[in-house]
Amino acid sequence: MKFDNLRVVVTGASRYFGRALAVGFAHLGAEVYVSARTVEAAERTRAEVMGSARDRIHAFGCDLSRPAEIREFAARVGEHTDRVDLLVNNGARWLDGMDLESASDESIVETIESTAGGTVLMVKHFLPLLRRSLRPDIVNMVAVRDAEGASAATASVAHEAFWTAKSAQAGFADILSRRLRPSGVRVFSLYPPDFSTSDPRFAEWEGARTDGLAADEKLTTQALFECIVYAVEQPRDCFIRSFHFEPR
User: pTM for the complete prediction?
Assistant: First the structure.
């Protein structure tokens, strides 16, 4: 298996793209440490994996809006492995509503803290484990560039706090890429528009189409996963800062 010795951390892995990442990397041979807001949600992802890949997924609870839980998550992963080769910052708190006043103060703060603050703290507390790797990579699932770059459907329902959090995450990814590059830690981000979250199991991806889509079909989860795999496989002197996808 191509990632037989890879150690991967994935946040927000209880459903959709995060779960697909966990399943995909486990089937490629990696040891995958997944987190969700509750350990029960993370365990459901592990339970749904078929075959021996299930034993390569390790489930943890971690609310990304709570710094203490991020510190504990990093510490517990460090008890299982001496390094992390790939950190995927996928977790983000979704908040909908076009009216700024429609959301509570608590929801607004949690959205920004979990997505922006959570990403910063995940990198901070996992950097020691990443620096022990010979091939350290960080992936940020930014998901949207701005209201113009996202699909009309997404832009119409996302709250202002969600856009604020994603913009902060993008800014952090940019400066992080510049500052960590000299030390050999690569940082790259994905900026897709609205994409399919059908959450296929990895076995169902065999033979699935990732190109030649009809004009009304969305970008697929499999295509995004393969972009990450492609970037991780590149020689260490190849730095891919970002993948930008045009809305269909």
Answer: 0.88
